[in-house]
Amino acid sequence: MKGLRAKLRLRLAVPIALVLIALGWSARAARLAGAGGVSAGAQNQDPRLEGAYRFEDNGWIYVHLQGSPQDIGFQHGYLLAPEIADALQAIEVEDTHETGHPWSFFQKAAQDMLWPKIDPEYQAELQGIVAGLQARGEKIGLGDVVALNAFQELANYYVPWYDAQHAPSEKESGDPAPDPRNFDHCSAFVATGKYTKNHDIVMGHNNWTSYLEGERWRIIFEIQPEHGYRILMDGFPGVITSDDDFGINSAGLMVTETTISDFHGWNPNGVTEFERSRKALQYAGSIGEYVKILNQGNNGGYANDWLIGDRKTGEIARFEEGLAHTKLWTTKDGYFVGSNFPSDPQVAAQETTFNLDDRSNSANARHVRWKALMRQYKGKIDIPLAEQFEADHYDTYEKKIDPDERTLCGHLDLSPRGARPYSPFGAVEGKVIDSELAARMSFVARLGHPCGESFEAKPFLAAHPQWDWEKSVLGDMPAFPWTEFGAGEKAPAQ
Q1: For residues 255 and 259, what is the distance between their CA atoms, to the nearest angstrom?
Q2: What is the pLDDT of residues 100-123, one digit of tens each?
Q3: Taking the model in full, what pTM does it have?
Q4: What CATH number labels 3-486?
Q5: In angstroms, rounded to a whole number, what is the distance separating the alpha carbons of residues 305 and 344?
Q6: Residue-range domain boundaries for the chain
Q7: Would you give the end-to-end CA distance of the chain in angstroms?
Q8: 226 in Cβ contact with 405 (< 8 Å)
Q9: 210 phi and psi, to 5 degrees?
Q10: Residue pLDDT, tens place only, 247-295
């Protein structure tokens, strides 16, 4: 335990598998909780596993990886083999259903379009993941692993571009056809100077995604590479970057993002975002370096508003990365917020179909809420308030408390509105950090809805049979307590 904040949090003393069962998590998830551990004897048999380990705490799986790219990849694949196999199955079900393309389409795109442009360092790490998986008996190939790493980019950015290229009637009609999967993703802020209690940086983020992804988005990666900075980030099994992009490095950078809504753009000759975001976190020592690395070879995939802080200087930034247009804002005395709205008029007008004037839109409604919270709590923002913000249920369009698609803590499964009423989608976990935590390579995270509400799959599917296609991969998503994690952490005492 680390400091007063850690002492105030509940660390569960019951073995995690029993906790999951008691909370009603799916049998599949409960099995995974006990299946992923590797005995010390097994690790000692292979030198590539030296120094690597995993443990579970309040629903999260903490994984320490270290060494060469090949070793980091092997450790990743080996220690998380059951979770990766499970995640791959879920993503395959989701992507093939939602796009109409078979999984072989994604494997081919990964191997033919993405793989040749990946830096050799990360090619070695991805190959190491495959080797680690196969050492655990999983028959998962390189095409699968690369496609899994690009699951945000391929389905949501490449597929609409590809389909437009191969559908002349749509192409001739003007704008690309709307993508029904182009949901809003994430609610985040970063503040510094006169806006925060201690005049240092405070940052918060919650990840919005489908619940079938969210129940699996429960990895805390600590990576100690032989080159570059040490990394602590949340993440998805089998993926070499955070992918909801919340992380810190030992150079003092604090990073998160929110996706730009209704973005359309793809460069098939560019570099995949999952590599660029990982490389930036691993090698950047300043905001300027982070932006430069992130934008090298930009392919338009996973277009985001990046929120960045440098604890060494107290400076914060927003970097909006479209494909044709990018823009950087910085300050040492202010705030930036993200709720999936485009900030640069050029990006909004030329690279999105987003309506900035629709106050009923989720991104706009949440933007209004963020600005109100920043004004209300100016000079008071700290970690407890950051946790409160990420759990907020005030709908600014309805002007009342009502957890739905317009609240910072999103609950689309409770909303009858939109193209997909009652979608099992929303805020699936939250993370908060300040300069003090970053200085000791730590952050605070909560698995499940940041508000503490749990999601139960069986009654949901019974009430909304239109989502039965997810039945084989959709499980419960219980909410756990806020918990502090740090670099070099070991399993909590039982």
Answers
A1: 14
A2: 999 999 999 999 999 999 999 999
A3: 0.91
A4: 3.60.60.30
A5: 10
A6: 3-486
A7: 13
A8: no
A9: -65, 150
A10: 999 999 999 999 999 999 999 999 999 999 999 999 999 999 999 999 9
